[in-house]
Design brief:
The protein is α+β, with helices and mostly antiparallel strands. It has five helices and nine strands. Strands 1-2-9-4-7 form a five-stranded antiparallel beta sheet. The chain has a four-stranded antiparallel beta sheet with strand order 3-8-5-6, with helices on one face. Helix 4 crosses helix 5. The N terminus is likely disordered.
Length: 171
């Protein structure tokens, strides 16, 4: 970080001290708790856990911005986030996520890699950051994981469309 960055209010993210490459039972349990990952072989979960990184954000920090390129997905370890999308009258709330919930995976599913929503911390937040390259390799090797995430993506994109749609009957 640049000089004095720790004292700059815009510098809100930091790597959790002590995060290492060793696989912890807590990370594995967190991954197992995500329905899309439940069917993955133990070895794949261990590799994903080993390659993941724990990060912290302060309340109010923007984790992902709609339209930006995505290179990782996240699981909430502690805290909560709001998922919003740009609507005709400003940001529209799509979801509130908390412990054990996955986000950011939509940008990794298809070649475009752009974020479909903005995600903002609504409390002090601790996340498990899952590297995009490893997730893409798992998606390529595991049709069941891809099918699970594709189904979730279709639901989220449909929900986003419906939330942002402007009714032709509105006055």
């Amino acid at each position: 970080p640049r000089s004095g960055a720790r004292h700059d209010p815009a510098y809100r993210s930091q790597r959790v001290a002590g995060a290492s490459l060793s696989v912890s039972d807590r990370r594995l349990d967190l991954l197992r708790g995500v329905p899309a990952f439940a069917a993955l072989p133990e070895q794949a979960l261990r590799l994903l856990a080993q390659d993941s990184e724990e990060v912290c954000h302060a309340s109010g920090a923007i984790i992902l911005r709609e339209g930006e390129t995505g290179d990782r997905a996240y699981i909430v370890i502690a805290g909560s986030v709001e998922v919003t999308a740009a609507g005709p009258e400003g940001p529209t709330l799509l979801a509130t996520l908390s412990q054990g919930e996955l986000f950011g995976e939509l940008a990794l599913l298809h070649g475009q890699g752009t974020r479909a929503a903005t995600v903002t911390a609504t409390s002090p937040l601790r996340l498990l950051a899952l590297p995009g390259l490893e997730l893409r390799q798992l998606l390529d090797a595991g049709p069941q994981l891809r099918a699970e995430l594709d189904a979730a993506a279709r639901w989220m994109l449909t929900y986003r469309f419906l939330k942002l749609a402007v009714s032709p009957f509105a006055v």
